[in-house]
């Protein structure tokens, strides 16, 4: 102070302003009391400000032994750093002492002390549990003064989450970084990050709630910048976000992204997607957004449809950010390819078993992602501004092996056709090309066969695939009974199915009518064969009846037969009696025969 007065060179100087004194007037008052020999109580709430003020006032050992710097350093080293509660409170009080607290290593020492105690066994250390959350069933250590919990009392592994979450984000990052160095499990670190985000970013999963007011935090302090919970904005344009509030939220999100553990499943995929939603809203650094997208891609199969419906904040034509989901899917496929192609150092048998298990796990993950993408397409297809190209690219991003059933994809296509009735015939064919008709269930085939929105070619493919399925099933059952192991289905893949269907559909109904006429001709041929067989059967039946049934002649026919026999006998007798009179009958006068006419 003498040097400041001398440097001003003002003889009438009566007041000195120490505006940059760390700790403010409270710290200066304590330092002045110390100089005059008045007893000063050193506590966890004032030790950091008093230590910084002593450094500012140059109260070193050069002037007098046992000066304020020595006293405060001793209290920090031997009292504060040995207590969990005091370390938290001192680190919390350092928020308004930057950069003095950083330069004096107070932040570093408190962070390492907290990290060491968080990683140690709680039963063997004496400290006080300060910030027990009311919803967490943790031991009531507030009622116990500097005493360890009972040996029979089970200490939850997340006992330190609530205490650490009261820190400002930069100090929280220092603590988490120190905890990582100590070797804590990545699952616990991820859980601590989610707990911190839930405290400082309330309303993270609220939909359409606009600006959520959280005017007080757990200790009842008012919300201003870093003091208390931050407000969360999930809807509206970016211009509506208050600048100071957006800056604070952006700093929290960027810091959380940077300290997420690299191991998979450290945090839930739902949490990552919610962070990604906020990052896009608050214009987080593009490099961090890309890193967060890659993290989502690592566990994309765990996502839900509600988390994927992220609004488009960049003034896009679509309501939802379809391009973002496309990038997430690409990161997922790259990650799957990397895991399947990574070499293994295990033995041959173990490697073979591991590769088989990894292949099955990757296939299951792809199947879950396929169902997720189909559901997402069904939701976003109702948007009239969604282009056909985006829909097709997203639907075709996954390999065909990822979908064992295309019912979900058919549902999305039908929903898109409903929302876009003005599509041309070519565009509808292009849209339906992403679907495999052979993978549709019976219900989907019945619906597709009666769907007037589908192109005629697709309807024919659906009917043909159903016919092939029935034929294959019948042939499979018959050959299975015969024990034929070399049975091959009539149509084994989609390529054969597409080749078997008519290809010249550019003429429209003309070619379709040809196909219908062909089917009618085959039907008429079958009917003709059936009628011919029926006639043959009737003929055989009549012949059989003639053979088995006895004949009954009429009386008139029997009389004429008797008369003809009598005539023959008379002629023979006359021939024998008068062999020498051959012309006797000629000399005999023929009796006149009369014939009655109806006319």
TrEMBL record:
Segments forming domain NPH3: 158-469
Originating species: Datura stramonium (Jimsonweed)
Segments of this protein annotated with the region Disordered: 336-355, 572-599
UniProt name for this protein: 26S proteasome regulatory subunit 6B
Family label: Belongs to the NPH3 family.
PANTHER family registered for this protein in UniProt: OS12G0117600 PROTEIN (PTHR32370)
Coiled coil: 516-543
UniProt cross-references to PROSITE patterns, sorted A to Z: NPH3
Gene Ontology cellular component terms for the protein in this record: proteasome complex
Annotated Basic residues bias: 589-599
Pathway: Protein modification; protein ubiquitination
Encoding gene (name): RPT3_1
Keywords: Coiled coil, Proteasome, Ubl conjugation pathway
